[in-house]
């Protein structure tokens, strides 16, 4: 019987592992298909405290893992959880399988910390994930990466509040921000849309979507090919950065609603003021429950809180 199983390995999962490991709970971490989470797709991280010169996203996640393992956390790589079931005695059964194989795994545990995060939506065009991983001009986080695009033109894809907010934020750095939307008006709230469209640095590109990324000789984005959603015509738009703002998909499909409450988008619902879910012994931390901030440091804070709550729960048993 495990004390704690942590599902996911971003800042939330690794921080939860550090705290539970230091409490001698010997946590087991299941990494999923993307060890380290979304930060492993980010190049320079400049806004995580303690690194005044910045740090590469994969390196930050590696250091967090090493710190957790130093205190006794155990990591199972490339394990994808398929379901979590509650047992009659209040413990849990975690069912999983190999990401790159057919082996199945079953663990029993007293508590579960869900830190499986959320995945940014992209357009599904060829080579997208390569551009994201290489930091070659495609990202889904203006707060994380906006400062790398000073005095150059960029674009934001989307039409909701997030897209309007990201576009407004990027005007602090970029010389021009194209707000590309597949319709002829934003679906953002009136105040957000008005604020974005009133900014002289933001230029809306209506009834359009990206159909191709155009790269320079170094493999970085130099322009995008736009396709008009009304008449199908195509045109080239020169820019150096593309910011996706078409939403996120929470990685919560493996959890039943008998066990945890979810909102209409699939994000886990926490008990107000806590990381606990409606089922005692199950906690949610990071982007799997955070629809507002979605930052590495806030995820780490929730991972800490979930670990402390799990520790207290185990002590109460």
Automatic annotation (TrEMBL):
It catalyses: [thioredoxin]-dithiol + NADP(+) = [thioredoxin]-disulfide + NADPH + H(+). One of its GO terms (cellular component) is cytoplasm. It is an enzyme of class 1 (oxidoreductase). Binds 1 FAD per subunit. Keywords: Disulfide bond, FAD, Flavoprotein, NADP, Oxidoreductase, Redox-active center. Its cofactor is FAD. GO terms for biological process: removal of superoxide radicals. It holds the Pfam family Pyr_redox_2. It comes from the Bacteria. One of its GO terms (molecular function) is thioredoxin-disulfide reductase (NADPH) activity. Residues 3-303 form the FAD/NAD(P)-binding domain. InterPro entries: FAD/NAD-bd_sf, FAD/NAD-binding_dom, Ferredoxin-NADP_redctase_2, Pyr_nucl-diS_OxRdtase_2_AS, Thioredox_Rdtase. Its EC number is 1.8.1.9. Belongs to the class-II pyridine nucleotide-disulfide oxidoreductase family. Homodimer. This is Thioredoxin reductase. It comes from Rubritalea profundi.
């Amino acid at each position: 019987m495990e004390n704690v199983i942590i599902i996911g390995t971003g800042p939330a999962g690794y921080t939860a592992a550090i705290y539970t490991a230091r409490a001698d709970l010997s946590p087991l971490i299941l990494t999923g298909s993307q060890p380290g989470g979304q930060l492993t797709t980010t190049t320079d991280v400049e806004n995580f405290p303690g690194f005044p010169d910045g740090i590469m996203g994969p390196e930050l996640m590696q250091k967090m893992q090493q710190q957790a393992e130093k205190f006794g956390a155990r990591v199972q790589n490339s394990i994808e959880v398929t379901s979590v079931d509650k047992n009659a005695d209040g413990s849990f059964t975690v069912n999983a399988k190999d990401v790159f194989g057919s082996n199945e795994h079953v663990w029993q545990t007293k508590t579960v910390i869900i830190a499986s995060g959320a995945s940014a939506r992209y357009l599904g065009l060829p080579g997208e994930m390569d551009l994201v991983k290489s930091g070659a001009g495609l990202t889904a986080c203006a707060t994380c990466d906006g400062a790398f695009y000073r005095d150059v033109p960029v674009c934001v894809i989307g039409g909701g509040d997030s897209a309007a907010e990201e576009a407004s934020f990027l005007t602090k750095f970029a010389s021009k921000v194209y707000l590309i939307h597949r319709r002829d008006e934003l679906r953002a709230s009136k105040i957000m849309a008005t604020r974005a469209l009133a900014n002289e640095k933001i230029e809306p590109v209506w009834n359009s979507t990206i159909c191709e990324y155009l790269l320079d000789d170094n493999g970085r984005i130099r322009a995008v090919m736009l396709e008009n959603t009304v008449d199908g015509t195509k045109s080239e738009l020169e820019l150096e950065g593309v910011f996706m703002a078409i939403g996120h998909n929470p990685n919560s499909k493996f959890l039943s609603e008998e066990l945890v409450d979810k909102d209409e988008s699939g994000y886990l619902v926490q008990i107000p003021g806590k990381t606990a879910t409606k089922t005692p012994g199950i906690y949610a931390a990071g982007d799997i429950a955070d629809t507002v901030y979605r930052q590495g440091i806030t995820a780490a804070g929730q991972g800490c809180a979930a670990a402390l709550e799990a520790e207290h729960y185990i002590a109460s048993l």
